[in-house]
Amino acid sequence: MTRTVRFHEVGGPEVMRLEDVEPGEPGPGEVRIRVDAIGVNRAEALFRSGRYIEPVKRFPAGLGSEAAGVIEAVGPEVNGFEEGQAVSVVPNFSYNDYGMYAERAIAPASSLVPRPDGVDAVSGAAVWMPYLTAYGAMVEVGGVRAGDVAVVNAASSSVGLAAIHTANRLGATPIAVTRTDAKRRRLVEEGAAEVIVSDEEDVAGRILALTGGRGAEYVFDAVAGPGVTELARAVAADGTLFLWGAQSGQPTPYPGFDLGMPALNLRTYTVHEITRDASRMRRAAAFVASGLRTGAFHAVVDRVFPLEEIVRAHRHMESNTQFGKIVVTT
């Protein structure tokens, strides 16, 4: 038996329970992992509360799609991985099928990446989802080039910080948007060329001023909701507004008509566009691994909680006060 986080109804963080569950043996294409660290993602809070893009199909339900650990057992039809190997798990599966919030867990081999030398478990659970998300939107889909301006809101999130680092590596100019002034200094230290405080400034007006009226070639929006119209006002002609999150929890209008039908590209995006495509994932893994190797990329960890404090970890995430990744250790 192994300690596993499950929930029996949708709701707030308090619905999660730590239960003893038999992890089972890996089937074809699967491995069993001794989980050492788990990356906590906002998608998990949405799934737990019944507000995710995919509904909970059965109870009790599990959580977690990003982790680091060591392979304990290898199922049939698995190639390239072996018992005792240190790996990270990346999100390429449904929460309805697998969950990493546990001391031991079954994972599809397709979700594994070897853990590079020098990357410990906490970092290994914190780096992949943010950088795969940023790489996919900025490189594979967006085609960000040197000299482009990339605006990133919710910039102090793990994905926001990865986007800042990725923009710098591509030669683009990252402009960070954050709600309060409290995180300005740290965002600059992480590489933001400019920081806009949305509670105090006209975001679109400031972006236009910083770009000489041109606007930003790319805007990466993790908040969505009514504010999307204001952000769209700051997108350059034929630029792209990526919606890669919906933290506001409010309906998101299409802004094109209200703004007079500009040459605006508006696109939703999730990391699964990368992790569920073998060719894209191969390129993404190489890009992230090279960034880790050279020091251009690194894990930004806000706080580490033990597994028995998973409720506290989710409450901390929903406070929106964190800077970087929340990690849970077993």
Automatic annotation (TrEMBL):
Alphabetical UniProt keywords: NADP, Oxidoreductase
Taxonomic superkingdom: Bacteria
Signal peptide start and end residues: none
SMART domains, per database record: PKS_ER
InterPro entries referenced in this protein's UniProt entry, alphabetically: ADH-like_C, ADH-like_N, ER, GroES-like_sf, NAD(P)-bd_dom_sf
Annotated Enoyl reductase (ER) domain residues: 11-328
Cited Gene3D superfamilies: Medium-chain alcohol dehydrogenases, catalytic domain (3.90.180.10), NAD(P)-binding Rossmann-like Domain (3.40.50.720)
Protein name as annotated: NADPH:quinone reductase-like Zn-dependent oxidoreductase
Organism: Nonomuraea angiospora
